[in-house]
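Standup, Tuesday
Yesterday: got the pipeline producing C-alpha cells again.
Today: sanity-check two examples.
Blockers: none.

Example 1:
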Amino acid sequence: MATCKVDVERRDYFRVDVALPVAYWREADHVQTKLNLTPVNISGSGMRFVSERPLTVGDTVSLRIGLPSGIVPAQAKVVRVQGKAKEGSSVSMQFTAIGSHDQERLLEYMFAA
C-alpha cells in the first residue's frame, strides 16, 4: 500500500485581507512610519504588509493598528521579509505582545470583515 505525506499548515487564527491604517517602527531606531489604509493580511497572532522601510528577520517592531473601535497597540517580531527594499518588501510579523482585550477587539473586527 502506498503512503503519501500530506503537508498541512496549521495556524492559530484565521487570516483576513483588509485595508487598515498602521503605524510601525523598529524598536532599535524609534523612527515611526505611518501607513494610511494599507492592505494588510492580519490574524490574531500576526500580520503581513508591504513596508517601504528596510526591516530584517528578527527585528522587534512596535505597531499601532487602527480599527473603527480605536487603536490596537502591539509589539511584533519580524519572521519573514520578501522582495526588494527599494520597491517595498512584504514583511510578515508575529505578535509578541498584545493585550488580551486588544486582541479580542482585533478578532471581533476580523469576524465582522
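Example 2:
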Amino acid sequence: MKHAKLGTYYLEKLCILPNYRHNGYGKDILNYCEQYVLKNRGVRISIGIINENSILKEWYINNGYYEIEIKKIGHLPFTVCLMNKELTSESE
C-alpha cells in the first residue's frame, strides 16, 4: 500500500489465488488495509482494476468503493477503472 498526499493510500497488486477465493480472505485484507489507513490518519483508499472484469468491479462496489474514472492506457489491452473508498472510523 502506497501513501500519497492528502490522506489517500493506493492499494496495488492485491490478488487472491483462485483456489483460495470465496473464503473471505479478500474482505479480510481490505479490512486490514482500511484500519491501517485510518490508524495513519488517511481518509481514502484508491485502487485501479481491469474495468472489463465486472465480477471484481461489483465486488469492490459491494465493499464500499465507487468509480472515479475509466481510462485507456496506451500499452494496456484493457481499460482501467479507478475506484475510491472514503473512510471514517465507522468503516467496515
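Quick observation on example 2: The chain has a mean pLDDT of 91. The domain at 2-86 is CATH 3.40.630.30 (Aminopeptidase).
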